[in-house]
Amino acid sequence: MHAWPASEVPALPGQGRDLRIHDTATGGLVTLDPGPVARIYVCGITPYDATHMGHAATYNAFDLVQRVWLDTKRQVHYVQNVTDVDDPLLERAVRDGVDWTALAEQETALFREDMTALRMLPPRHYIGAVEAIPGIVPLVERLRDAGAAYELEGDTYFSVEADPHFGGVSHLDAATMRLLSAERGGDPERPGKKNPLDPMLWMAAREGEPSWDGGTLGRGRPGWHIECVAIALDHLGMGFDVQGGGSDLAFPHHEMGASHAQALTGEFPMAKAYVHAGMVGLDGEKMSKSKGNLVFVSQLRREGVDPAAIRLTLLAHHYRSDWEWTDQVLQDALARLDRWRAAVSRPDGPPAEAVVEQIREALADDLDSPAALEAVDRWAALQQTSGGTDTGAPGVVSRAVDALLGVAL
User: Fold this and answer.
1) In whole angstroms, what is the distance from residue 86 CA to residue 46 CA?
2) Are residues 375 and 252 in the same domain?
3) Is the pLDDT of residue 286 over 80?
4) How many CA atoms lie within 13 A of 206 on its CB side?
5) Collapsed DSSP state (helix, strand, coil) of residue 78
6) pLDDT by residue (tens digit) across 221-240?
7) Number of domains comprising the chain
8) Cα separation, 169 vs 275, whole angstroms
9) Which of 114, 161, 272, 302 has a CA-to-CA distance to 311 between 20 and 30 Å?
């Protein structure tokens, strides 16, 4: 599966700072010190609907992570998956009377267009669950043969007790885990499981649903969590720098994935930091496909909204905060974009070195994008009120906003 084209990232004078970021597993800020190649895995979409603002906010956060690392002169090895076979996708295809593979391809293509428009840097490896199946099956067989998985009526489940570190990502109590498991794709009430929280690794073939050769597992399809584990281990290995996604993935998805990987390898941890973006709401509720309260990137683009303004709307909120989409937040972003473009269109201006360093400092401090925007606001206000004589300053600011914030002025 191919990703989307990369926008050019301008080179800036000087060098960026190492990133301090909030790690869900430890509950505090950690300073990441990758080697020459920083490694990041971000969980991708289940392509049964278009990209909404919740998606965009999550991918914007991890795009900033990439940009901070690139500014430290590191390379970035970024991997993202596509869950291109799963119950919600199959259910939507049945509802709409379309082929599930065609639906997945259509929505994945639209996602690529949205990411390109928003100037999100693409992953080096963009892997669909279906194409990962040949690598998933041996992992499930290994877990079963090691006693970390068991069969139940043809399905194969992971035993959470096989990982002594289980619970170390989300730090939730058993009752909360059970509740969230039921809400987020698990089946804690199924009779016969060793532990209600045990997640499915391999689902035996169901009539009328797609299935693949599972070797000694029989025909079927993979569970949600093992999909990402197989892709991450194949392309990044254990101990990669950041596992990322929305806050609703901390449990069960990232918790279970970490346990799968740790049971498979005997190594700990799967990722050095588990980083989670907040939720975007609309009309008082989290924006989600199941509720249908969505604002789509593609719809805004069709209405003529500048993608740079959409991105500025996202950047105006700290990535870990939950926030509400309103017409006003978009109007604020459009006004900011106009001010910035007017400021950098002048032939000269106030010195720009300080604003570049302020953006760098803000982003290195747990991706504080609101503070970064305020730094550019101050420079633009000074440009409007008193101007300056530095002929290179507008270009420096423009390149810094592009390189570090992903906004083309």
Assistant:
1) 7
2) no
3) no
4) 9
5) strand
6) 999 999 999 999 999 999 99
7) 2
8) 10
9) 272
Structure tokens at 341: 């473009």
- Which comes out higher in pLDDT, residue 286 or 368? 368
Residues 304 and 276 in one domain: no
Domain limits for position 399: 297-405
Q: Global pTM?
A: 0.96
Residues 357, 311 share a domain: yes
Pairing of strands 149-152, 155-158: antiparallel
Count other Cβ atoms within 10 Å, centred on residue 343: 24
Structure tokens at 180: 């969230």
Q: Which residue from 309, 371, 310, 379 is spatially nearest to 346, judged by alpha carbons?
A: 379
Q: What is the rounded CA–CA span in Å between residue 70 and residue 203? A: 40
Instruction: Give the pairing of strands 200-204 and 155-158.
Output: antiparallel
Q: What is the CATH number of the domain that holds 312?
A: 1.20.120.640
Q: H helices within 266-352, ranges in order?
A: 297-302, 307-315, 327-344
The beta strands (E) that lie in 278-395 are given as 280-282, 285-286, 323-324
266 and 307 share one domain: no
pLDDT tens figures, 27-70:
999 999 999 999 999 999 999 988 999 999 999 999 999 999 99
239 burial (CB, 10 Å; 0-12 / 13-18 / 19+) is middle
Closest to 322 (Cα-Cα) out of 292, 296, 289, 288 = 288
DSSP secondary structure letter of residue 233: H
- Report whether 17 contacts 360 (CB < 8 A): yes
pLDDT score of 290: 66
Burial status of residue 357 (CB atoms within 10 A of its CB: 0-12, 13-18, 19 or more): middle
Please give the Cα distance from 34 to 19 (Å, whole number): 10
- CA distances for 226 relative to 53, 135, 186, 261, angstroms: 27, 10, 13, 8
Give the pLDDT confidence of 128-180 residue by residue, as tens digits.
999 999 999 999 999 999 999 999 999 999 999 999 999 999 999 999 999 99
**Which of 258, 286, 314 represents a domain boundary (last residue)?**
286
Tokens of 53: 């603002």
What are the tens digits of pLDDT across the range 319-376? 999 999 999 999 999 999 999 999 999 999 999 999 999 999 999 999 999 999 999 9
For residues 213 and 257, membership in a common domain is answered with yes
